[in-house]
Every structure is written in C-alpha cells, then in structure tokens.
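hey so u asked for the seq, here:
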Amino acid sequence: KCVFVTVGTTSFDDLIACVSAPDSLQKTESLGYNRLILQIGRGTVVPEPFSTESFTLDVYRYKDSLEEDIWKADLVISHAGAGSCLEALEKGKPLVVVINGKLMNSHQLELAKQLHKEGHFFYCTCSTLPGLLQSMDLSTLKCYPPGQPEKFSAFLDKVVGLQK
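ran it, structure tokens below
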C-alpha cells in the first residue's frame, strides 16, 4: 500500500519534515503502508530516499504530471491547493488535506472546511496529522462527483468573493 504526499509547485517544508520524520515513517508502516512517495516542490527539506525489505521512501521535486503517483496511491496527503485536491478527488482517492499555517489564507481553509463538511476528505495541520492518520476511518469518505469542474470553480469563485 502506498501513500503519496504532494505540495504542488509550492514549498511546504513543515509537511515534508512531518511525514518523513522517523516516528512518522514508523507510524505509516504500522498503518499497513509499505511505500511513501514525496513530491517536495520548491522545498528545502529533502529527505533521503531509501528502501528496505518492508518500506520504500521515494522523493522528487516535480514531474510533468502527478497522475501516475495519484493512481498508485492508496492515500493522498496534500497541501490545500485547489488543483492538487481536485486531482485526487476526481480519481476517487482517499485524501487528507494539510493546511499550511504559514501561508494561511482564508480561501484554503474555507475550501478545506467545506469539502470536509461534505465528507469528501479529512483536513488537519502538521501538528494534528499524526493523530488524524491514527484515528481516521477512510470508509466514511464520500466520492466527489466526477466530471463537474464547473461546480468546483463556481464554489471557489464564491469562496474567494468573485461570485455571490
């Protein structure tokens, strides 16, 4: 089983440091995952990739498309970027969105709160991520309705104040 972590084109060192810390790697493995793929964007935290008999950590900055990694993933952990969230949701992947407190803008938080309220994903901060991973029940998540990007954009426009 595979966990894919993405920060998109941004830098979210706190998230990468959090998921790659030795205790987090142990927790990830104890939850039944044997592979962690980190897409680290512009970050300065660059974990050392490794592979053991029971666990593999892969790390990269960018690819032309994240589609393959999202398809491989049994769980996606993402920054709160709308594009990253939508891509994981459209592929029907269980999603945990981590809010970057250092970039905190109400749009990301509003989006996360609304989609969480609708049951599409879980959201947290870096400090609450370990507890959430331990306690979450992925079977409670609802599929995001496919092929309706216009609804997503209308919702985003409303959140950012472009539409009433």
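The mean pLDDT is 88. The longest helix spans residues 106-117.
lmk if thats what u needed
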